[in-house]
Design brief:
This protein is mostly helical. Helix 3 packs across helix 4. The longest helix has 27 residues.
């Protein structure tokens, strides 16, 4: 399962965000109208993959533009950057709900 997900991520990462975003509205319109079908489920997954590439690029750009460039200290430790809760982390923070909206509203 992990290998399959890694392969999917690798292929998804090779796609151009602008080309994907040109399909956003098409899949958003399909997903808006619920249908208990395989097709609807696949459309939801396609829309979420488009969104995930967009989110990944926004996060990358945000972290890359940080003035303190905290990546340099993380490279010394050879540990991946922390972008969320870690298992065993006892800090209680409220979750943030991301709105589901068209990219035209940005």
């Amino acid at each position: 399962m992990d290998k399959m997900l890694r392969n999917l991520a690798e292929k998804l990462n090779q796609l151009d965000e602008a080309s994907l975003m040109s399909l956003w509205e098409k899949y958003y319109e399909r997903v808006k109208i619920f249908s208990p079908s395989k097709r609807w489920e696949e459309d939801v997954l396609i829309l979420s993959m488009i969104q995930s590439v967009r989110w990944k690029n926004q996060l990358f750009n945000h972290l890359w533009a940080k003035p303190d460039n905290s990546q340099t200290s993380e490279k010394k430790n050879d540990s991946p950057p922390s972008i969320g809760p870690v298992r065993g982390n006892k800090v209680k923070k409220a979750g943030k709900v991301l709105s589901f909206r068209s990219p035209q509203n940005d």
